[in-house]
Specification:
three-stranded antiparallel sheet; four-stranded mixed sheet; 9 strands; globular
Protein backbone atom coordinates (compact mmCIF):
# COMPACT_ATOMS: atom_id res chain seq x y z
CA UNK A 1 0.00 0.00 0.00
CA UNK A 2 1.18 3.53 -0.76
CA UNK A 3 1.36 6.34 1.80
CA UNK A 4 -1.12 5.95 4.67
CA UNK A 5 -3.29 8.82 5.87
CA UNK A 6 -4.61 6.99 8.91
CA UNK A 7 -6.81 4.14 10.14
CA UNK A 8 -10.50 3.37 10.59
CA UNK A 9 -11.59 0.79 13.18
CA UNK A 10 -13.76 -1.98 11.70
CA UNK A 11 -15.55 -4.60 13.84
CA UNK A 12 -14.52 -7.41 11.47
CA UNK A 13 -11.01 -6.57 10.32
CA UNK A 14 -9.65 -4.38 13.10
CA UNK A 15 -7.81 -1.30 11.86
CA UNK A 16 -8.32 -0.55 8.16
CA UNK A 17 -5.59 1.66 6.76
CA UNK A 18 -6.58 4.36 4.26
CA UNK A 19 -4.53 6.51 1.88
CA UNK A 20 -4.82 10.29 1.46
CA UNK A 21 -6.94 10.02 -1.72
CA UNK A 22 -9.20 7.45 -0.02
CA UNK A 23 -9.67 9.87 2.87
CA UNK A 24 -10.66 12.61 0.42
CA UNK A 25 -13.10 10.26 -1.37
CA UNK A 26 -14.59 9.07 1.93
CA UNK A 27 -15.21 12.67 2.98
CA UNK A 28 -17.29 13.47 -0.13
CA UNK A 29 -21.04 13.88 0.15
CA UNK A 30 -21.48 10.88 -2.16
CA UNK A 31 -19.74 8.42 0.16
CA UNK A 32 -20.92 9.99 3.42
CA UNK A 33 -24.50 9.45 2.22
CA UNK A 34 -23.85 5.70 2.51
CA UNK A 35 -23.98 6.15 6.29
CA UNK A 36 -27.71 6.76 5.83
CA UNK A 37 -28.40 3.69 3.69
CA UNK A 38 -28.97 0.45 5.57
CA UNK A 39 -27.19 -2.57 4.18
CA UNK A 40 -30.22 -4.79 4.79
CA UNK A 41 -33.39 -2.71 4.55
CA UNK A 42 -36.20 -4.64 6.18
CA UNK A 43 -33.98 -7.10 8.03
CA UNK A 44 -34.08 -5.01 11.20
CA UNK A 45 -37.69 -6.16 11.66
CA UNK A 46 -36.33 -9.69 12.15
CA UNK A 47 -32.77 -9.13 13.34
CA UNK A 48 -32.61 -6.07 15.63
CA UNK A 49 -28.85 -5.79 15.17
CA UNK A 50 -29.11 -5.46 11.39
CA UNK A 51 -28.71 -1.71 11.36
CA UNK A 52 -25.32 -1.60 9.69
CA UNK A 53 -24.90 0.52 6.60
CA UNK A 54 -23.55 0.58 3.07
CA UNK A 55 -20.78 2.83 4.40
CA UNK A 56 -19.09 0.23 6.57
CA UNK A 57 -19.64 -2.48 3.97
CA UNK A 58 -17.92 -0.31 1.36
CA UNK A 59 -14.95 0.24 3.67
CA UNK A 60 -14.76 -3.51 4.25
CA UNK A 61 -14.90 -4.29 0.53
CA UNK A 62 -12.13 -1.72 -0.07
CA UNK A 63 -9.96 -3.37 2.59
CA UNK A 64 -10.41 -6.84 1.09
CA UNK A 65 -9.81 -5.51 -2.42
CA UNK A 66 -6.51 -4.07 -1.20
CA UNK A 67 -5.42 -7.38 0.30
CA UNK A 68 -6.31 -9.26 -2.87
CA UNK A 69 -4.66 -6.67 -5.10
CA UNK A 70 -1.46 -6.69 -3.06
CA UNK A 71 -1.31 -10.48 -3.37
CA UNK A 72 -1.52 -10.45 -7.18
CA UNK A 73 0.35 -7.29 -8.24
CA UNK A 74 3.05 -4.87 -7.14
CA UNK A 75 1.64 -2.03 -9.26
CA UNK A 76 0.70 0.66 -6.72
CA UNK A 77 -1.69 2.42 -9.11
CA UNK A 78 -3.51 -0.85 -9.85
CA UNK A 79 -3.81 -1.57 -6.14
CA UNK A 80 -5.15 1.93 -5.48
CA UNK A 81 -7.62 1.70 -8.37
CA UNK A 82 -9.02 -1.61 -7.13
CA UNK A 83 -9.38 -0.30 -3.58
CA UNK A 84 -11.23 2.81 -4.78
CA UNK A 85 -13.43 0.79 -7.13
CA UNK A 86 -14.49 -1.40 -4.19
CA UNK A 87 -15.04 1.66 -2.00
CA UNK A 88 -17.34 3.21 -4.63
CA UNK A 89 -19.12 0.12 -5.93
CA UNK A 90 -22.33 0.84 -3.95
CA UNK A 91 -22.60 4.64 -4.21
CA UNK A 92 -25.47 4.34 -6.70
CA UNK A 93 -27.86 2.62 -4.31
CA UNK A 94 -31.09 4.47 -3.62
CA UNK A 95 -33.15 4.63 -0.42
CA UNK A 96 -33.70 1.17 1.08
CA UNK A 97 -31.00 -0.09 -1.32
CA UNK A 98 -32.24 -2.85 -3.64
CA UNK A 99 -35.89 -1.95 -3.03
CA UNK A 100 -35.35 1.32 -4.90
CA UNK A 101 -34.47 -0.62 -8.07
CA UNK A 102 -38.14 -0.61 -9.10
CA UNK A 103 -38.09 3.19 -9.11
CA UNK A 104 -34.81 3.31 -11.04
CA UNK A 105 -36.30 0.97 -13.63
CA UNK A 106 -38.66 3.76 -14.64
CA UNK A 107 -35.59 5.56 -15.99
CA UNK A 108 -34.37 2.28 -17.50
CA UNK A 109 -31.48 2.31 -15.03
CA UNK A 110 -30.24 0.35 -12.03
CA UNK A 111 -27.96 1.17 -9.11
CA UNK A 112 -24.87 0.23 -11.13
CA UNK A 113 -25.81 2.78 -13.79
CA UNK A 114 -26.21 5.38 -11.05
CA UNK A 115 -22.82 4.46 -9.55
CA UNK A 116 -21.19 5.06 -12.94
CA UNK A 117 -23.05 8.36 -13.30
CA UNK A 118 -22.11 9.64 -9.86
CA UNK A 119 -18.44 8.72 -10.20
CA UNK A 120 -18.24 10.57 -13.52
CA UNK A 121 -20.51 13.54 -12.83
CA UNK A 122 -20.30 14.37 -9.10
CA UNK A 123 -17.51 15.80 -6.96
CA UNK A 124 -15.95 12.34 -7.04
CA UNK A 125 -14.66 13.02 -10.55
CA UNK A 126 -12.65 16.05 -9.40
CA UNK A 127 -11.09 14.20 -6.46
CA UNK A 128 -10.14 11.27 -8.69
CA UNK A 129 -8.61 13.53 -11.32
CA UNK A 130 -6.60 15.35 -8.66
CA UNK A 131 -5.26 11.94 -7.63
CA UNK A 132 -4.21 11.06 -11.17
CA UNK A 133 -7.08 8.65 -11.82
CA UNK A 134 -9.53 8.54 -14.72
CA UNK A 135 -13.14 8.79 -13.42
CA UNK A 136 -14.57 7.04 -16.50
CA UNK A 137 -12.24 4.05 -16.23
CA UNK A 138 -12.74 3.77 -12.47
CA UNK A 139 -16.52 4.04 -12.85
CA UNK A 140 -16.44 1.00 -15.14
CA UNK A 141 -14.18 -0.93 -12.80
CA UNK A 142 -16.46 -0.13 -9.83
CA UNK A 143 -19.25 -2.15 -11.47
CA UNK A 144 -16.95 -4.85 -12.85
CA UNK A 145 -17.19 -3.73 -16.45
CA UNK A 146 -13.71 -2.43 -17.26
CA UNK A 147 -13.20 -2.94 -21.00
CA UNK A 148 -9.39 -3.18 -21.19
CA UNK A 149 -8.81 -6.78 -22.33
CA UNK A 150 -5.45 -7.08 -20.61
CA UNK A 151 -7.04 -6.23 -17.25
CA UNK A 152 -10.32 -8.12 -17.34
CA UNK A 153 -9.33 -10.10 -14.25
CA UNK A 154 -9.60 -6.82 -12.31
CA UNK A 155 -13.35 -6.86 -12.95
CA UNK A 156 -13.57 -10.17 -11.11
CA UNK A 157 -12.09 -8.61 -7.97
CA UNK A 158 -15.20 -6.42 -7.86
CA UNK A 159 -17.79 -8.59 -9.58
CA UNK A 160 -17.63 -12.38 -9.78
CA UNK A 161 -18.85 -15.40 -7.88
CA UNK A 162 -16.13 -14.89 -5.27
CA UNK A 163 -15.58 -11.13 -5.26
CA UNK A 164 -14.70 -8.75 -2.42
CA UNK A 165 -18.28 -7.46 -2.31
CA UNK A 166 -19.70 -10.91 -1.51
CA UNK A 167 -16.80 -11.88 0.73
CA UNK A 168 -17.49 -8.84 2.89
CA UNK A 169 -21.28 -8.80 2.97
CA UNK A 170 -21.67 -12.52 3.69
CA UNK A 171 -19.46 -12.22 6.78
CA UNK A 172 -20.63 -8.72 7.78
CA UNK A 173 -24.34 -9.42 7.43
CA UNK A 174 -23.95 -12.64 9.41
CA UNK A 175 -22.09 -10.74 12.14
CA UNK A 176 -24.72 -8.01 12.50
CA UNK A 177 -27.77 -10.27 12.28
CA UNK A 178 -26.30 -12.90 14.58
CA UNK A 179 -27.40 -15.54 12.08
CA UNK A 180 -23.90 -17.07 12.18
CA UNK A 181 -23.97 -18.51 8.68
CA UNK A 182 -20.99 -16.46 7.50
CA UNK A 183 -18.17 -18.15 9.41
CA UNK A 184 -15.94 -18.17 6.34
CA UNK A 185 -12.17 -17.72 6.21
CA UNK A 186 -12.25 -14.96 3.62
CA UNK A 187 -8.53 -14.35 4.00
CA UNK A 188 -7.67 -17.87 2.88
CA UNK A 189 -9.78 -17.37 -0.23
CA UNK A 190 -8.08 -14.05 -0.91
CA UNK A 191 -4.55 -15.37 -0.49
CA UNK A 192 -5.18 -18.46 -2.64
CA UNK A 193 -6.73 -16.52 -5.54
CA UNK A 194 -4.62 -15.30 -8.44
CA UNK A 195 -4.83 -14.52 -12.17
CA UNK A 196 -4.74 -17.60 -14.38
CA UNK A 197 -5.57 -17.81 -18.07
CA UNK A 198 -7.05 -14.31 -18.02
CA UNK A 199 -9.32 -14.89 -15.00
CA UNK A 200 -9.04 -14.89 -11.25
CA UNK A 201 -8.87 -18.51 -10.15
CA UNK A 202 -8.95 -20.26 -6.78
CA UNK A 203 -6.23 -22.70 -5.79
CA UNK A 204 -7.66 -26.13 -5.01
CA UNK A 205 -5.83 -26.02 -1.67
CA UNK A 206 -8.65 -23.68 -0.58
CA UNK A 207 -11.43 -25.94 -1.86
CA UNK A 208 -12.93 -26.58 1.58
CA UNK A 209 -13.03 -22.84 2.27
CA UNK A 210 -14.66 -22.21 -1.11
CA UNK A 211 -17.30 -24.84 -0.35
CA UNK A 212 -17.99 -23.20 3.00
CA UNK A 213 -18.38 -19.83 1.28
CA UNK A 214 -20.88 -21.19 -1.28
CA UNK A 215 -22.89 -22.91 1.45
CA UNK A 216 -22.89 -19.67 3.47
CA UNK A 217 -24.28 -17.83 0.43
CA UNK A 218 -27.17 -20.28 0.16
CA UNK A 219 -27.95 -20.23 3.88
CA UNK A 220 -27.70 -16.44 4.05
CA UNK A 221 -30.02 -16.04 1.10
CA UNK A 222 -32.63 -18.30 2.64
CA UNK A 223 -32.39 -17.03 6.20
CA UNK A 224 -31.42 -13.37 5.85
CA UNK A 225 -31.84 -11.85 2.38
CA UNK A 226 -34.99 -13.77 1.50
CA UNK A 227 -36.38 -14.32 4.99
CA UNK A 228 -40.16 -14.29 4.67
CA UNK A 229 -40.61 -11.38 7.13
CA UNK A 230 -37.79 -9.35 5.56
CA UNK A 231 -39.39 -9.78 2.17
CA UNK A 232 -42.79 -8.80 3.54
CA UNK A 233 -41.32 -5.53 4.83
CA UNK A 234 -39.47 -4.95 1.56
CA UNK A 235 -42.63 -5.45 -0.46
CA UNK A 236 -44.45 -2.91 1.73
CA UNK A 237 -41.64 -0.37 1.24
CA UNK A 238 -41.66 -1.02 -2.52
CA UNK A 239 -45.43 -0.42 -2.61
CA UNK A 240 -45.05 2.79 -0.62
CA UNK A 241 -42.37 4.10 -2.99
CA UNK A 242 -44.52 3.28 -6.01
CA UNK A 243 -47.67 4.89 -4.58
CA UNK A 244 -45.80 8.06 -3.58
CA UNK A 245 -43.70 8.44 -6.71
CA UNK A 246 -46.20 10.59 -8.62
CA UNK A 247 -46.40 13.11 -5.77
CA UNK A 248 -42.80 12.96 -4.52
CA UNK A 249 -41.02 12.43 -7.85
CA UNK A 250 -38.53 9.77 -6.80
CA UNK A 251 -38.07 8.71 -10.42
CA UNK A 252 -37.71 12.20 -11.92
CA UNK A 253 -34.24 13.17 -10.64
CA UNK A 254 -31.88 14.59 -13.26
CA UNK A 255 -28.92 15.94 -11.25
CA UNK A 256 -26.56 14.10 -8.87
CA UNK A 257 -27.57 16.45 -6.06
CA UNK A 258 -31.24 15.48 -6.40
CA UNK A 259 -30.37 11.81 -6.13
CA UNK A 260 -28.04 12.33 -3.18
CA UNK A 261 -30.84 14.08 -1.29
CA UNK A 262 -32.63 10.74 -1.08
CA UNK A 263 -31.56 8.40 1.73
CA UNK A 264 -33.33 6.08 4.17
CA UNK A 265 -34.00 8.84 6.70
CA UNK A 266 -35.38 11.51 4.39
CA UNK A 267 -37.36 9.05 2.27
CA UNK A 268 -39.03 7.39 5.27
CA UNK A 269 -40.13 10.84 6.46
CA UNK A 270 -41.45 11.84 3.03
CA UNK A 271 -43.33 8.55 2.65
CA UNK A 272 -44.95 9.01 6.05
CA UNK A 273 -46.06 12.54 5.13
CA UNK A 274 -47.39 11.56 1.70
CA UNK A 275 -51.10 10.76 1.68
CA UNK A 276 -50.74 7.93 -0.84
CA UNK A 277 -48.14 6.01 1.21
CA UNK A 278 -48.91 7.14 4.76
CA UNK A 279 -51.02 4.13 5.74
CA UNK A 280 -48.28 1.67 4.73
CA UNK A 281 -45.66 3.54 6.73
CA UNK A 282 -47.93 3.69 9.77
CA UNK A 283 -48.47 -0.07 9.53
CA UNK A 284 -44.71 -0.58 9.37
CA UNK A 285 -44.24 1.56 12.46
CA UNK A 286 -46.80 -0.60 14.30
CA UNK A 287 -45.24 -3.77 12.81
CA UNK A 288 -48.50 -4.70 11.09
CA UNK A 289 -46.73 -6.53 8.30
CA UNK A 290 -47.74 -8.53 5.27
CA UNK A 291 -47.99 -12.21 6.16
CA UNK A 292 -46.70 -15.16 4.17
CA UNK A 293 -49.65 -17.40 3.27
CA UNK A 294 -47.85 -19.80 0.93
CA UNK A 295 -44.26 -20.75 0.15
CA UNK A 296 -42.47 -23.40 -1.87
CA UNK A 297 -38.71 -23.72 -2.34
CA UNK A 298 -36.59 -25.58 -4.87
CA UNK A 299 -33.19 -25.56 -6.54
CA UNK A 300 -33.49 -25.47 -10.32
CA UNK A 301 -30.45 -27.18 -11.81
CA UNK A 302 -30.22 -24.88 -14.81
CA UNK A 303 -30.70 -21.14 -14.72
CA UNK A 304 -34.30 -20.50 -15.88
CA UNK A 305 -34.58 -19.47 -19.51
CA UNK A 306 -38.36 -19.10 -19.41
CA UNK A 307 -39.70 -15.69 -18.45
CA UNK A 308 -42.97 -16.91 -16.96
CA UNK A 309 -42.72 -14.94 -13.73
CA UNK A 310 -40.53 -12.19 -15.20
CA UNK A 311 -43.54 -10.68 -16.91
CA UNK A 312 -45.63 -8.30 -14.86
CA UNK A 313 -48.72 -9.37 -16.74
CA UNK A 314 -48.20 -13.00 -15.73
CA UNK A 315 -47.64 -12.04 -12.11
CA UNK A 316 -50.89 -10.07 -12.10
CA UNK A 317 -52.74 -12.91 -13.76
CA UNK A 318 -51.63 -15.37 -11.07
CA UNK A 319 -52.47 -12.91 -8.29
CA UNK A 320 -55.92 -12.36 -9.81
CA UNK A 321 -56.57 -16.10 -10.02
CA UNK A 322 -55.57 -16.61 -6.37
CA UNK A 323 -57.69 -13.64 -5.27
CA UNK A 324 -60.70 -14.98 -7.18
CA UNK A 325 -60.43 -18.42 -5.57
CA UNK A 326 -59.94 -16.87 -2.14
CA UNK A 327 -62.78 -14.40 -2.75
CA UNK A 328 -60.68 -11.41 -1.71
CA UNK A 329 -59.70 -8.15 -3.41
CA UNK A 330 -56.77 -8.67 -5.78
CA UNK A 331 -54.71 -5.95 -4.08
CA UNK A 332 -54.70 -8.20 -0.98
CA UNK A 333 -52.57 -10.80 -2.81
CA UNK A 334 -48.88 -10.39 -3.65
CA UNK A 335 -46.78 -12.96 -5.48
CA UNK A 336 -43.07 -12.91 -4.65
CA UNK A 337 -40.20 -14.86 -6.24
CA UNK A 338 -36.47 -14.38 -6.97
CA UNK A 339 -37.41 -14.83 -10.62
CA UNK A 340 -39.25 -11.53 -10.51
CA UNK A 341 -37.08 -8.68 -11.81
CA UNK A 342 -37.85 -6.35 -8.92
CA UNK A 343 -36.82 -8.66 -6.10
CA UNK A 344 -33.91 -7.48 -3.92
CA UNK A 345 -30.91 -9.81 -3.89
CA UNK A 346 -32.26 -11.49 -7.00
CA UNK A 347 -28.76 -12.25 -8.24
CA UNK A 348 -27.75 -13.61 -4.84
CA UNK A 349 -29.96 -16.60 -5.50
CA UNK A 350 -28.03 -17.56 -8.63
CA UNK A 351 -25.20 -19.67 -7.26
CA UNK A 352 -22.94 -19.62 -10.34
CA UNK A 353 -20.41 -22.26 -9.23
CA UNK A 354 -19.38 -22.81 -12.85
CA UNK A 355 -18.11 -19.23 -12.98
CA UNK A 356 -15.36 -19.98 -10.44
CA UNK A 357 -12.16 -21.03 -12.24
CA UNK A 358 -9.85 -23.35 -10.31
CA UNK A 359 -6.20 -24.28 -10.62
CA UNK A 360 -3.69 -26.65 -9.06
CA UNK A 361 0.04 -27.17 -9.22
CA UNK A 362 1.56 -30.35 -10.67
CA UNK A 363 5.15 -29.88 -9.69
CA UNK A 364 5.85 -26.32 -10.73
CA UNK A 365 3.30 -26.34 -13.52
CA UNK A 366 -0.08 -24.68 -12.97
CA UNK A 367 -3.05 -26.47 -14.53
CA UNK A 368 -6.76 -25.66 -14.82
CA UNK A 369 -9.13 -27.66 -12.63
CA UNK A 370 -12.89 -28.14 -13.05
CA UNK A 371 -14.24 -27.44 -9.57
CA UNK A 372 -17.58 -29.00 -10.45
CA UNK A 373 -15.85 -32.32 -11.08
CA UNK A 374 -13.63 -32.00 -8.04
CA UNK A 375 -16.27 -31.10 -5.45
CA UNK A 376 -19.56 -32.87 -4.85
CA UNK A 377 -20.59 -29.93 -2.66
CA UNK A 378 -20.12 -27.44 -5.49
CA UNK A 379 -21.77 -29.69 -8.08
CA UNK A 380 -24.79 -30.16 -5.82
CA UNK A 381 -25.17 -26.39 -5.52
CA UNK A 382 -25.22 -25.85 -9.27
CA UNK A 383 -28.40 -24.08 -10.20
CA UNK A 384 -30.84 -21.45 -9.04
CA UNK A 385 -32.51 -21.20 -5.64
CA UNK A 386 -36.16 -20.41 -6.24
CA UNK A 387 -38.54 -19.48 -3.43
CA UNK A 388 -42.10 -18.66 -4.48
CA UNK A 389 -44.25 -16.96 -1.86
CA UNK A 390 -47.67 -15.38 -1.65
CA UNK A 391 -48.29 -12.56 0.82
CA UNK A 392 -51.52 -11.16 2.21
CA UNK A 393 -52.88 -9.49 5.36
CA UNK A 394 -53.07 -11.40 8.63
CA UNK A 395 -56.89 -11.95 8.64
CA UNK A 396 -56.79 -13.41 5.12
CA UNK A 397 -53.77 -15.63 5.58
CA UNK A 398 -55.51 -19.00 5.81
CA UNK A 399 -57.93 -18.30 2.96
CA UNK A 400 -55.24 -17.01 0.59
CA UNK A 401 -52.91 -19.86 1.52
CA UNK A 402 -55.50 -22.44 0.54
CA UNK A 403 -56.26 -20.67 -2.74
CA UNK A 404 -52.54 -20.39 -3.53
CA UNK A 405 -52.15 -24.11 -3.02
CA UNK A 406 -54.95 -24.76 -5.49
CA UNK A 407 -53.41 -22.44 -8.10
CA UNK A 408 -49.70 -23.15 -7.64
CA UNK A 409 -49.64 -26.61 -6.05
CA UNK A 410 -47.50 -27.62 -3.10
CA UNK A 411 -48.31 -26.91 0.54
CA UNK A 412 -49.46 -23.57 1.98
CA UNK A 413 -47.25 -21.92 4.57
CA UNK A 414 -47.94 -23.05 8.13
CA UNK A 415 -47.13 -20.47 10.79
CA UNK A 416 -45.06 -21.45 13.79
CA UNK A 417 -43.81 -19.50 16.77
CA UNK A 418 -41.71 -16.92 14.98
CA UNK A 419 -41.24 -13.18 14.69
Amino acid sequence: MSERWGFIKDPLYGYVAITPIEKDIIDTRVVQRLRRLRQLAGAEFVYPGANHTRFEHSLGAMHLAGLLAESITEDEMEIQSLRLAALLHDVGHGPFSHIFEEILAKQDRNHEDISTWLIQESELADVLKDGGLDPKSLSRLAIGKLEEKSKLYQNQVIRSSVDVDKLDYIVRDSFHTGAEYGSVDVFRLIYTTEPFQGNLAVNTTALTTLEAFLIARVLSFRSIYYHRVCRGVQRMLADALELADEELGFSTFTEPGEYLDMDDYSTWTHLKQCKASRSIMERLERRELLKCAYTVESIVQDYPTIDLLDKESVRKQIEAEIAKKAKVDVEKVQLDSPLLPSVPYRHSSKLDPMEIPGFAYVGKKKIAVDLIELSRVISSLKGYLDIVRVYTTAPLRKRVGKASQEVLGGTPYVSGISM
